[in-house]
Amino acid sequence: MNKSELVKVLAEEVSIPLDEAGMFVDTFFDSVRTSLLRGERVEIRGFGSFKIKEYKGYLGRNPKTGQSVQVPPKKLPVFRAGKELKDLLNK
User: For the whole model, what pTM was predicted?
Assistant: First the structure.
């Protein structure tokens, strides 16, 4: 399912216009992004949680040339499925 399919399902389920459903979906994703940018954890009970994991820089190697390369520190979003979602998938 992609974003436009999600908007369509929301519009049909709640009987609202597509543009209004799109606004709700955009607001939800913007709120998640904003919270993650502030370093906050986002938890949706029964579904899962999102958090930012920080990785330190390290000395890597270019596989083509074998040359050493300094890899800078980075932050990545991580999703962890909640217990209810895991149980639903493993019935």
Answer: 0.79
